[in-house]
């Protein structure tokens, strides 16, 4: 799969897909026609809750996933049915979808990091410079995914 293009109605799902290591572009201020054109041009699978847009997408011969639920957790399960593993994987910036680079954590990398990180891995976004590490926020997300994986096997 050559990545996803996520409708801006589904920003939160897009962010989560990036947390799962998926290439999920999430453009803002993009109308339906532009979205469709971009999906075709970049061979991305369009993800939307808009049935009409999904139908247009099919007619145009582009691949599309129609999300039914308005609830994030249900949406993640819908993506799992499409073959997406619900496992956190630090590869993509949640903000801009750029690739992350693993970096050596700086000696003094802020109290938050020192306090929270159980291991010494850190990642930095190639584009915006945002830093990522496996802290308490990471564990909370992991817990949620584990629960989803457990509850609905
Ligand atoms: Zn970034």
Quick recap of the structure?
The protein has helices at residues 11-19, 32-42, 51-59, 72-81, 111-116, 136-151; strands at residues 4-6, 24-25, 45-48, 64-66, 100-103, 122-125, 131-132.
Write the layout of secondary structure elements.
Layout: E1 4-6, H1 11-19, E2 24-25, H2 32-42, E3 45-48, H3 51-59, E4 64-66, H4 72-81, E5 100-103, H5 111-116, E6 122-125, E7 131-132, H6 136-151
Parallel strand pairs: 1-2, 1-3, 3-4
Antiparallel strand pairs: 5-6, 6-7
The structure holds zinc ion (ZN).
Spatially, the strands of the biggest sheet line up as: 2-1-3-4
Using only CA atoms, what is the Rg?
17 Å
Ligand list: zinc ion
Instruction: Indicate the overall shape.
Output: globular
**Secondary structure category:** alpha/beta
| Number of H/I helices | 6
How would you characterize the overall build of this protein?
- This protein has 153 residues and is an alpha/beta fold.
- It folds into two domains: 4-81; 100-151, no CATH class.
- It has six helices and seven strands.
- The protein has a four-stranded parallel sheet, with helices on both faces. It has a three-stranded antiparallel sheet with strand order 5-6-7, with no helix packed on it.
- Strand 1, helix 1 (11-19) and strand 2 form a beta-alpha-beta unit.
- The protein is globular.
- The site of zinc ion has 8 residues, from loops.
């Amino acid at each position: 799969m050559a990545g996803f293009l996520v409708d801006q109605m589904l920003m939160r799902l897009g962010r989560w897909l990036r947390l799962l290591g998926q290439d999920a572009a999430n453009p803002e201020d993009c109308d339906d026609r532009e979205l469709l054109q971009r999906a075709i041009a970049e061979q991305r699978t369009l993800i939307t809750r808009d049935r009409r847009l999904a139908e247009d997408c099919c007619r145009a011969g582009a691949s599309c996933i129609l999300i039914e639920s308005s609830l994030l957790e249900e949406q993640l399960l819908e993506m799992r049915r499409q073959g997406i593993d619900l496992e956190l994987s630090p590869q993509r910036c949640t903000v801009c979808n750029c690739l992350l680079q693993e970096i050596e954590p700086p000696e003094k990398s802020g109290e938050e990091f020192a306090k929270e990180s159980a291991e010494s891995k850190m990642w930095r976004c190639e584009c915006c410079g945002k830093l990522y590490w496996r802290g308490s926020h990471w564990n909370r997300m992991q817990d949620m995914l584990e629960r989803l994986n457990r509850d609905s096997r």
